[in-house]
Design goal:
Low-confidence stretches of chain A: 1-19
Largest interface: A-B, 141 and 157 residues
CATH class of the largest domain in chain A: Mainly Alpha
Structural class of chain B: alpha+beta
Radius of gyration of chain A: 25 Å
Distance between the termini of chain B: 17 Å
Oligomer: heterodimer
Strand content of chain A: under 5%
CATH class of the largest domain in chain B: Mainly Alpha
CATH topology of the largest domain in chain A: MetI-like fold
Structural class of chain A: mainly alpha
Order of helices and strands of chain B: HHHHHHHHHHHEEEHEEEEEHHHHHHH
Number of domains of chain A: 2
Low-confidence stretches of chain B: 1-91
Order of helices and strands of chain A: HHHHHHHHHHHHHHH
Helix content of chain B: 40-55%
Number of helices of chain A: 15
Number of helices of chain B: 19
Radius of gyration of chain B: 35 Å
Mean pLDDT of chain B: 79
Largest sheet of chain B: 5 strands, antiparallel
Chain lengths: 301, 518
């Protein structure tokens, strides 16, 4: 099968039907394709509506939200206001934004660093029990976070870091590691052995090979791991709920504490939620191919 | 080498942006050239593949391969070794001791934060709330006997049965359909954008969607609108007969019936009260019943109340309002013989009614409150509602994975079937789905693991009062240990229970991984 033939087949599919059909068949295909287009547009809109609703609710006054649906905004756009956002930022929400940053950034960097080191050992250094230990890592991929909440809360209490940002960070790093090691190790083993052997013959130590040969080559894997870990920590609620006190709480926990009076707090919750998803969405759109890579690799988790 | 390229035709190797499948840009363009958008992604991917060219083909593949359950283990390593012309086991330098330094930080974290907690939880689950008294398996017995816990387990069961299969099927449908549109990239972005949004934000989003008031919640707004199109709402809740002997009609089981039987040729008056004047302000003035033709029966349903006073009770006065669209039944011997609807002015006519004696009845549905949508966040619908939100978040994820597998299916097989006269449905059913089976299984299993641990969505969407009805194990674990329950013995038992539930899938992963290694 030649590339050209495959191309042709692909092209025919793109046009919405198989080749070599009669006029009637093609008309039916064309019509079916039109219906399909409409259906897919509706489907995409259906998927967008909930998020759109959040955005619109966040820029309407409390009174407007209480008296009519957000979709009425399309007939009366004059109602829009940024008041909710300015009120929210004045209320100290920015502190929780920075907490989120201070939790997420170190977690991501630490996971990448520690996992890369371990992955290098798993991929390129022979040591006894390597394969069995790696299987343990694979097994740890699916361990639920819940298992560690109580023991680690006890441990943190003893260490005096309960409620602090380092405690939250370390928890995220530990639970990010199995996936990170798995992903990076699988990438590292694909690096041609002669590159490493050449470096070894030149007398480079393992640290230097890791830092100057392997890690730089792993940029695509590191990028997808980084974005995935970043999103995972940024969006976490459960770990923050248990390990971060009010002073150190990230946005998710700060917003969750407003959920009890959902109806009266919509003017805080809607803009807060929207602010909390802006950075993930920017990352998502900017690095969507790495995001997909992370998703694909993360499907075992 | 070629053979290894063909290997990843198994799912996961596909056209998904940046999956990094090292099959080379030109083949990608060929196999996945479904759309211009797709091609632009391929171009991106081409660069990616080039960037990854040096690290080696199989390495670049691994993320996708891992996703497809074909974690590029030994296969790739051997491949690389062969390609490099040397065996990896011929050690050139590093001693096992060096490995220890690379592994130490990871081992400390994994040991202290994951392995030790598992052992501690096992031990702790055998003690009571205070942790002082050994209670054996009592905490586990509680999980399987306490009624609240059983609801929790039942909910988890519903989740596991419904959510993964719906997500997988929707993902398959979306992936197949999206191959046929030109704006596939935009479509995929829209569909899996929810994956980037936190569960908390998704929860807030769906609290808004599910608001019971159809003027606020978009779900009920859509439902009531659609329903009103098919069945206009003409109810008059609150309308009732006067409660005195003079009134010609009386209430009966929610319906309104005439006290006296009526025969064809007669006119019937049905005066009602109890409607706020504002509700009928726009209505047309009521008219007295038209003179019945022989064999027909007429009447008027109206609001027997003159705003501002005046008017005669039980008579149609000039300014009183008729009730339009009311269903009227002629009942003989408990059987509905004829049905009609009132006009704008409240009058109605039964034509060609057989001779006999009839009770005229306005059935109950005339007076029930208008349909206002569903109580999504009420105790009965809460779990399906949250599952709906979960599907919204994850359908795109399934779609992207399955689309990756889909683009790895050899086009010539599909084409051959089409040329042989197979319909699109047959192609889908007999070729696409079987070839996709491995990737479908991976999506399905991933969703099960994910669903077993579901916490945030339930916690955020279910209002406090219905959390017992919406409860799931992961949430209950948090509630009994931290959210006020303060029983870490039971909490540990729940955590262990959760771990046991994911164990089969842990072995599934390990087996899959090892098979790939051989």
């Amino acid at each position: 099968m030649t590339t050209a033939a495959l191309s042709r087949a692909g092209g025919a599919t793109a046009a919405g039907g198989a080749p070599r059909r009669g006029l009637a068949g093609r008309l039916v295909d064309r019509f079916g394709s039109g219906v399909l287009q409409v259906f897919m547009v509706l489907l995409a809109l259906f998927w967008l509506v909930p998020t759109l609703g959040l955005l619109v609710v966040s820029v309407r006054t409390e009174e407007a939200n209480n008296s009519s649906g957000w979709w009425t905004v399309f007939t009366k756009p004059a109602e829009l206001t940024l008041e909710n956002y300015s009120d929210l930022l004045a209320s100290g929400f920015t502190a929780s934004f920075w907490n989120t940053v201070f939790i997420t950034v170190p977690s991501t960097i630490l996971v990448i660093t520690i996992a890369a080191l371990a992955a290098y050992a798993f991929a390129w250094i022979d040591f006894p029990g390597r394969d069995v230990i790696f299987l343990v890592v694979v097994a740890l991929l699916v361990v639920p976070i819940q298992i560690a909440l109580i023991p680690i809360a006890k441990l943190y209490g003893a260490l005096g870091i309960m409620g602090s940002i380092p405690g939250v960070v370390l928890f995220h790093v530990a639970f990010g590691l199995p996936f990170a090691i798995f992903l990076l190790r699988n990438f590292f083993v694909g690096i041609p052995a002669e590159l490493l052997e050449a470096a070894r013959m030149d007398g480079a130590g393992e640290w230097r090979i890791f830092a100057t040969v392997v890690f730089p080559l792993a940029k695509p894997a590191v990028a997808s791991l980084g974005i995935f870990q970043f999103l995972w920590v940024w969006n976490d609620l459960l770990v923050a709920l248990v390990f971060a006190d009010t002073e150190n709480q990230p946005m998710t926990k700060a917003l969750q504490s407003q959920m009890r009076q959902f109806g009266t707090n919509v003017d805080v919750l809607a803009p807060g939620s929207f602010l909390s998803v802006i950075i993930p969405l920017i990352l998502f759109f900017a690095f969507q191919r790495y995001f997909v890579q992370g998703l694909l690799a993360g499907s075992v988790k | 080498m070629t053979e290894r390229f063909d290997g990843p035709r198994t799912p996961g190797g596909g056209e998904v942006p940046a999956a990094g499948v090292p099959t080379g840009p030109q083949k990608d363009a060929a196999t996945s050239g479904t759309a211009e958008a797709g091609r632009s992604l391929d171009r991106e991917r081409g660069q990616d593949a080039q960037a990854a060219a040096r690290p080696g083909t199989s390495g670049a593949r691994s993320p996708a391969a891992a996703a497809a359950g074909t974690a590029a283990g030994t296969t790739t390593r051997e491949g690389t070794a062969t390609a490099g012309g040397g065996s990896r086991s011929r050690r050139l330098g590093p001693s096992p001791a060096v490995a220890m330094w690379f592994l130490l930080p990871a081992f400390i974290l994994l040991g202290a934060w994951m392995v030790y907690p598992i052992l501690y939880s096992l031990w702790r689950s055998l003690y009571d709330a205070s942790g002082n008294e050994f209670v054996g398996l009592d905490n586990y017995a509680t999980i399987f006997t306490d009624p609240g816990m059983l609801t929790t387990i039942r909910n988890n069961l519903i989740w596991v049965v419904v959510a993964p299969s719906v997500v997988t099927v929707l993902g398959l449908i979306f992936a197949v359909l999206s191959e046929r549109i030109r704006w596939v990239t935009a479509f995929k972005l829209v569909m899996f954008m929810p994956m980037a949004v936190s569960f908390l934000a998704s929860g807030v989003i769906f609290r808004l969607v599910y608001d019971a008031d159809p003027d606020k919640g978009v779900a009920n707004a859509i439902i009531t609108t659609v329903r009103d199109v098919f069945r206009p709402n003409t109810g008059y809740p609150g309308a009732r007969p006067r409660e005195n002997d003079a009134s010609p009609v009386a209430a009966q089981n929610g319906a309104v019936v005439t006290k006296q039987a009526a025969q064809p040729g007669q006119a019937v008056l049905i005066p009602l009260v109890g409607l706020p004047p504002a509700q009928v302000a726009e209505a047309a003035a009521a008219k007295a019943p038209p003179q019945p033709a022989p064999g027909s029966l007429t009447g008027t349903v109206w609001v027997d109340f003159t705003p501002g006073g005046g008017g005669t009770v039980n008579q149609v006065d000039g300014s009183e309002k008729g009730l339009a669209g009311v269903t009227v039944e002629a009942v003989a011997d408990g059987r509905v013989v004829a049905t009609t609807t009132t006009n704008e002015d409240g009058t109605f006519t039964f034509e060609n009614l057989p001779t006999g004696s009839y009770t005229i009845r306005l059935p109950q549905e005339n007076f029930t409150a208008p349909f206002n949508g569903l109580q999504w966040l009420g105790p009965t619908l809460i779990t399906p509602a949250i599952i709906g939100a979960y599907i919204w978040v994850h359908a795109g994820f399934a779609m992207v994975l399955i689309a990756a597998g889909l683009s790895a299916i050899p086009r010539d097989a599909l084409e051959a079937a089409r040329i042989d006269g197979a319909t699109e449905w047959q192609v889908f059913r007999k070729i696409t789905v079987p070839l996709l089976a491995p990737v479908l299984l991976v999506v399905f299993v991933t969703m099960i693991i994910n669903v077993l641990k579901v916490f945030d969505l339930v916690f955020v969407i279910a209002p406090g009062s219905v959390q017992p009805q919406a409860n799931v194990i992961a949430l209950e674990m948090w509630r009994v240990s931290f959210g006020g329950g303060n029983n870490q013995g039971l909490g540990s038992a729940l955590a262990i229970f959760l771990l046991v539930l994911v164990l089969p899938f842990m072995f599934f992963n390990i087996r899959r991984f090892r098979r790939e290694q051989q």
